[in-house]
Amino acid sequence: MAKRTTLPKDSDHYRDILENISEGCFEVDLAGNFTLLNPSMAKILGYAAEDLLGVNFKAYMNEDNIGKVFQAFNEAYRTDNPAMLLNGQHVRTDGSTVEIETSVALLRDEEGRPKGFRGIVRDITERKRMEQQLIQMHKMEAIGTLAGGIAHDFNNLLMGIQGFTSLMLSDLEPDHPHYKKLLQIEEQVHSGADLTKQLLGFAQEGQYEIKPIDLAEVLKRTAAMFGRMKKEIVIHRTCDKVLWRVEADEGQVEQVLMALYLNAWQAMPDGGTLTLEARNKTLDEGMTLLYQVSPGPYVWMSVGDTGVGMDEKTRERIFEPFFTTKAMGRGAGLGLASAYGIIKGHGGFISVTSKKGEGTTFDLYLPATRKRAVAVIEPEESIVQGQETILLIDDEEVIIEVSREILEMMGYRVWTARTGHEAIALYTSRKNEIDLVMLDMIMPGMSGGDTFDRLKAINPQIRVILSTGYSLTGQAREIMARGCRGFIQKPFRIETLSQKIREVLA
Fold it and tell me: Which of 473, 442, 466 has the alpha carbon at shortest distance from 204?
């Protein structure tokens, strides 16, 4: 049969439509040989039109897709109704994969006899990519909620261990045989608290000290620090001459970058190149909508390596907490998870591209600000005694017990309540005696937020310190905005608590 190298000319109008629509249009005979196709069809398949006309479609598809197409053709032939082929894939000559959606219908001759099939093909690669990213985002949000809850409960456990250990240390002389062991327990508690901070960072519950910072300086400093540690890595760093400022926690951003550097180093066991970039970028709604952030000015940072790369399955899970490809003992799998949560918690987003054997690149975007960079001076801490009366509200018996002993050791008189209702009743009868309230945020029945509102209604000038295993975000920040005087995160050190109490009472 003769090849047709052009579209039919029986109608210039329809010819124009076929040549300009984005969907691929084709016709095949009953054997599956192409008899017609438009430019979009050739583009989708990744071939020139003249290479396809007169050739059987099986020559350009893998076995799996051939079976799916035959199934669609058979259904259209058998039922005389259009048939859909969903979730099809085609590999182009350049090795790229295109996701396609195909609709086929039976084609008849002038006498009504079947003579082939006509079809429309849509390239849904971008749509599938966006759907996958949305699914991934929702999964990460769900995991983040779970991680935040685990971190909160774990911090409550650590608070009991930390508190009783501190109390025992305060009663012992340094030469006591158990003194060093108790110090080691405290060190382990601090390590556990660092782990929960990473979990809270992933859950976007990290406690941030926000100020305008210069990312070019942060990038320069962290690259120099990492370069001194890993001399087998060659580092290339480029930034815009005048980089916009961002409002962020400098320590948290450093943590993100160091996690990415370490990930790159582990992907390059024999050495390699680490490429760091920072640029000013203005993002439109088309870019930001997918990541659920606002369009506008952003600072883009890129961390790329020449390492082993990742397959698609690994890439999809790279930001999940405790997921790691490393051998046992070489990491908890929290570095990248924490980085993901920290960037999200700062109103930005992070994405990753990777190819097996060719390396990995992380792209980070943080909203820009016009504010100038400022320096923050950290206050010194020491244990300060007091004589006031404190109402301690917490539903955990261990937290009540250890916190009461710590407060009494510092000289305070302590009343305790284990529910919001009990606290309100106690405060109503003794409000003239109570100078300060320490309030747990997460409690069954009446929550910490509701309890605070009821207490404040009794005494608008009430002094309250909010205490929780979560960080100062979300619900805690809302309670603070309603007039709560102070915040402290469990597990806390005695010195930190004593300073916070004096600060609020002052």
Answer: 473
CA distance 226 to 266: 13
Q: Cis peptide leading into 491, omega within 30 of 0?
A: yes
What is the Cα–Cα distance from 19 to 177, expressed in whole angstroms?
88
**360 is written with which tokens?**
């990995």
Cβ neighbours of 378 (radius 10 Å): 6
User: pLDDT (tens digit, 0 to 9) for every residue of the chain, 506 residues total?
Assistant: 444 444 555 556 667 777 778 888 999 999 889 998 888 888 888 888 888 888 888 877 777 778 888 888 889 999 989 888 777 777 777 777 788 888 899 999 888 899 999 989 888 888 887 777 777 667 666 766 666 677 767 777 788 788 788 778 777 788 888 888 888 887 787 777 766 766 665 555 555 567 899 999 999 989 988 888 888 899 999 999 999 999 988 878 888 898 899 889 989 988 899 999 999 999 988 778 778 888 999 999 999 999 999 888 888 888 876 666 654 344 445 678 778 888 888 889 998 999 888 899 999 999 999 876 555 445 555 788 889 999 999 988 888 888 898 899 899 999 999 999 999 999 999 999 999 999 988 888 898 899 999 999 999 999 999 988 776 666 778 888 898 888 888 888 888 899 999 999 98
Separation of alpha carbons 452 and 102, rounded Å: 59
How far apart (Å, rounded) are the C-alpha atoms in residues 16 and 166? 82
DSSP class of residue 56? B
What is the distance between the alpha carbons of residues 32 and 49, in angstroms, rounded to a whole number?
Answer: 16
User: Token pair for residue 192?
Assistant: 């556990």
Helix (H) or strand (E) holding 468: strand 464-468
For residue 100, CA distances in Å to 60, 72, 465 come to: 14, 14, 58
Q: Which two tokens stand for residue 144?
A: 């983040």
Number of residues assigned to the chain: 506
Question: What phi and psi values does residue 11 have, to the nearest 5 degrees?
Answer: -155, 115
Tell me the C-alpha distance between 378 and 207, whole Å: 15
Rounded Cα distance between 471 and 475, Å, is 10
DSSP annotation of 262 reads H
Please state, as a whole number, how many other Cβ atoms lie within 10 Å of the Cβ of residue 469: 28
Kind and range of the H or E run holding 121: strand 114-123
Q: How does 98-135 read in b/e, with b if 16+ C-beta sit within 10 Å?
A: bbbbbbbebbeeeeeeeebbbbbbbbbbeebeeeeeee
- Is residue 237 within 8 A of residue 220, CB to CB? The reply is yes
| Inter-residue contact 126 to 135 (CB < 8 Å) | no
Question: Could you tell me the two tokens for 409?
Answer: 């050791």
Q: Which structure tokens are listed for 429?
A: 């009868």
Angle between helices 125-171 and 179-202 (to 10 degrees): 160
Rg (C-alpha) for the chain, rounded Å, is 32
